[in-house]
């Protein structure tokens, strides 16, 4: 994990001068404020700011001013009801702002979640550091034979060594050329906004990412899932650990209904009813496609 000396000084200054506040405070999230959690080889996530807590969700749902928010069991029941019935607005009352350092190719995948506010480090204005994501050997895998966007068996031996060497040498060569193009020694030097186009997708960038809890849960449901790409999944898992401490009641409901739950189609429900009635149902007479049936059997056998 690489924080600049300026960033470290900024964090230390912020942590050394706490201020009293009248706003809602989550003790769990306070512990994460300004602490960088390492991800991958050079990346991290850190909580810069947040708004709201479990009580804020309940307050918004009841449109109250603190009424009823002291009864944890009642609050938990209401939050679970809201999650179970897909009520989104109360969860939008909580927000979090993160500072994230991540490889560019992960950022391009991440930015598909368009329901957040993002401000990225500008390579038009500043020079990127010589930092690249190089996968650990156990993350070097062949193309999956059953999933067109996933990984299969891990590469081993000479092939794994050759791939790692190419990743390292190509990244460093591209950065060498980047520096050579920018250099003003004996030449004008190429503009930063043009020189950056020669950099590889595994170079690290940074951004501030602000999102409400409803949309953050959607992000985590997709990116913290076991089927998500490893490199973005580890970021999602690091964020999820912070969210669990921030809004424990809401996160427990999210884990139960979203991460641990299953959405059934009308056809799947019909098949389950037929099975419960003692009927043997095959894919051919289920009304489901082979892909749907494979997913159905993956859950229900």
From TrEMBL:
The pathway where this protein functions is: Pyrimidine metabolism; dTTP biosynthesis
Keyword tags: FAD, Flavoprotein, Methyltransferase, NADP, Nucleotide biosynthesis, Transferase
Q: Which domain of life is it from?
A: Bacteria
Question: Where are the annotated segments for Disordered?
Answer: 1-21
Active-site residues are: 223 (involved in ionization of n3 of dump, leading to its activation)
| Catalytic activities | dUMP + (6R)-5,10-methylene-5,6,7,8-tetrahydrofolate + NADPH + H(+) = dTMP + (6S)-5,6,7,8-tetrahydrofolate + NADP(+)
| Residues where dUMP binds | 109-112, 120-124, 196, 223
Q: What is its EC number?
A: 2.1.1.148
Identify which top EC class this enzyme belongs to: transferase
GO biological-process terms attached to the record: dTMP biosynthetic process; dTTP biosynthetic process; methylation
Q: How does it assemble?
A: Homotetramer.
User: What role is this protein assigned?
Assistant: Catalyzes the reductive methylation of 2'-deoxyuridine-5'-monophosphate (dUMP) to 2'-deoxythymidine-5'-monophosphate (dTMP) while utilizing 5,10-methylenetetrahydrofolate (mTHF) as the methyl donor, and NADPH and FADH(2) as the reductant.
The UniProt entry, under NCBIfam families, shows: thyX (TIGR02170)
Which HAMAP family does its entry note? ThyX
Membership in a protein family: Belongs to the thymidylate synthase ThyX family.
Q: What is this protein called?
A: Flavin-dependent thymidylate synthase
Origin species: Fuscibacter oryzae
Which gene name belongs to this protein?
thyX
């Amino acid at each position: 994990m690489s924080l600049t000396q300026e960033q470290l000084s900024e964090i230390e200054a912020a942590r050394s001068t706490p201020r009293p506040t009248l706003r809602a405070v989550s003790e769990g999230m306070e512990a994460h404020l300004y602490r960088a959690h390492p991800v991958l080889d050079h990346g991290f996530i850190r909580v810069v700011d947040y708004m709201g807590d479990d009580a804020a969700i309940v307050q918004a749902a009841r449109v109250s001013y603190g009424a009823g928010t002291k009864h944890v069991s009642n609050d938990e029941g209401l939050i679970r009801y809201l999650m179970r019935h897909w009520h989104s607005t109360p969860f939008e009352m909580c927000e979090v702002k993160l500072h994230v350092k991540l490889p560019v190719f992960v950022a391009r995948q991440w930015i598909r979640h368009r329901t957040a506010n993002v401000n990225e480090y500008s390579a038009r204005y500043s020079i990127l550091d010589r930092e690249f994501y190089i996968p650990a050997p156990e993350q070097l895998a062949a193309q999956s034979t059953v999933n067109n966007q996933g990984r299969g068996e891990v590469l081993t031996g000479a092939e794994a060594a050759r791939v790692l060497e190419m990743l390292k040498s190509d990244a460093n060569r591209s950065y060498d050329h980047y520096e050579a193009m920018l250099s003003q020694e004996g030449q004008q030097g190429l503009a930063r906004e043009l020189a950056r186009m020669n950099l590889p997708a595994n170079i690290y960038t940074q951004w501030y990412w602000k999102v409400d809890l409803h949309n953050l849960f959607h992000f985590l449901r997709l990116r913290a899932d076991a089927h998500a790409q490893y490199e973005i999944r580890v970021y999602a898992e690091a964020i999820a650990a912070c969210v669990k401490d921030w809004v424990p009641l809401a996160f427990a409901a999210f884990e139960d209904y979203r991460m641990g739950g299953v959405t059934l189609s009308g056809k799947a429900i019909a098949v389950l009813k037929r099975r419960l009635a003692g009927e043997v149902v095959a894919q051919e007479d289920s009304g489901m496609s082979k892909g749907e049936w494979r997913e159905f059997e993956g859950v229900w056998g």
